[in-house]
Design brief:
Number of helices: 9
Strand content: 25-35%
Largest sheet: 7 strands, mixed, barrel
Helix content: 25-40%
Strand order of the largest sheet: 1-6-5-9-8-7-11
Shape: elongated
Length: about 300
């Protein structure tokens, strides 16, 4: 995916949160944010960005052009609508690396100095917040580059008969379709891969280890969660999991098992393998749809949690 280049229009600081910031000649960033700025600290909203494009839209409504820093942004940019980014995306500027952590914020209305003085504020909807990954300095006129985070997903179907061509695998492609739709609907850049293997412990272990080393964000397996002699998926995955997430699988089994008791027989597990989330689903298309409908409700929150971002 191609990068986007932005121009740094202004850099701005203030000594208190919620106040209008004033432009400065340069800003110095360390691991806590901008030296001398109120937002600096050990948290995820260290450095705020707002695009000149947002200023221009506001000026058409307000009948005047605000000055840089008037919306309490640390960095005023030009070149893209920064609010269309997502947590995990990266901005670079020389040596500086900033990671997007939050889009917009709660508007405090009259409790905010910016709102009282300006009469409105675009930061709650169009401003973004970042944290410092690598320190350095930024000055007006510098060029920033934007790199969207690419979420990697892998779907693995385990089936002796599908892998030898006895029948076509339908559950794996269905999981691929649903994962792809999820990423498209959330606007996240993504790569979704698919593998079909027999019910083989060593092959599954190899793919899981490869996914972990390649930085895959989420692995979905289909098949092998029953009680058949060759059903080994939960055991293999459990041996790789560092942190189990039992609640989601328990809820799914109970939700669908209330009407169809056979659903309670699935032994699917979910958990974290390094930085990779793994979910083991049954091998039917219907079950894949049911499980994915619940899993995708919490998936982005899981991504944020793993990045250390408090989205509550």
């Amino acid at each position: 995916m191609s990068t986007v280049k932005l121009n740094v229009v202004s850099v701005n600081i203030s000594e208190k949160k919620g106040e209008i910031k004033h432009p400065v000649n340069k800003i110095s960033l360390n691991s806590l944010g901008i030296v001398g700025d109120a937002h600096a600290g050990d948290w995820h909203r260290q450095v705020s960005l707002l695009g000149k494009e947002s200023f221009e839209r506001f000026s058409k409504i307000a009948g005047r052009m605000p000055v840089w820093g008037e919306f309490a942004e640390n960095i005023t940019t030009e070149g893209m609508d920064v609010f269309k980014t997502h947590p995990g995306d990266i901005f670079t500027c020389g040596k500086v690396i900033l990671e997007v952590t939050q889009i917009g914020k709660k508007c405090h209305g009259d409790g905010c100095a910016v709102y009282r003085e300006v009469g409105n504020c675009v930061m709650p909807k169009e401003g973004i917040f970042t944290r410092v990954i690598q320190p350095g300095t930024i000055t007006p006129g510098d060029t920033m580059e934007y790199f969207p985070k690419i979420y990697k997903a892998l779907v693995i179907t385990l089936s002796d008969r599908a892998s030898n061509g006895t029948y076509e695998d339908l559950s794996g492609p269905e999981a691929v379709k649903l994962l792809t739709a999820y990423f498209q609907n959330t606007g996240l850049a993504h790569e979704v891969s698919y593998r079909l293997i027999p019910d083989n412990e060593q092959m599954l272990l190899g793919l899981l280890e490869e996914a972990q080393s390649d930085g895959v964000n989420v692995v979905i397996t289909t098949g092998g969660t029953g009680v058949g002699v060759r059903d080994i998926t939960p055991e293999v995955v459990s041996s790789m999991i560092d942190k189990e997430i039992p609640g989601i699988m328990e809820m799914i089994r109970l939700k669908y098992g209330a009407e169809k008791p056979n659903a309670l027989l699935s032994r699917g597990v979910a958990g974290l393998m390094g930085d990779t989330f793994v979910f083991t689903l049954p091998g039917s298309v219907k079950a894949v749809r049911e499980y994915m409908d619940e899993i995708t409700k919490t998936l982005f929150h899981l991504f944020l949690m793993r990045m250390g971002i408090d989205s509550h």
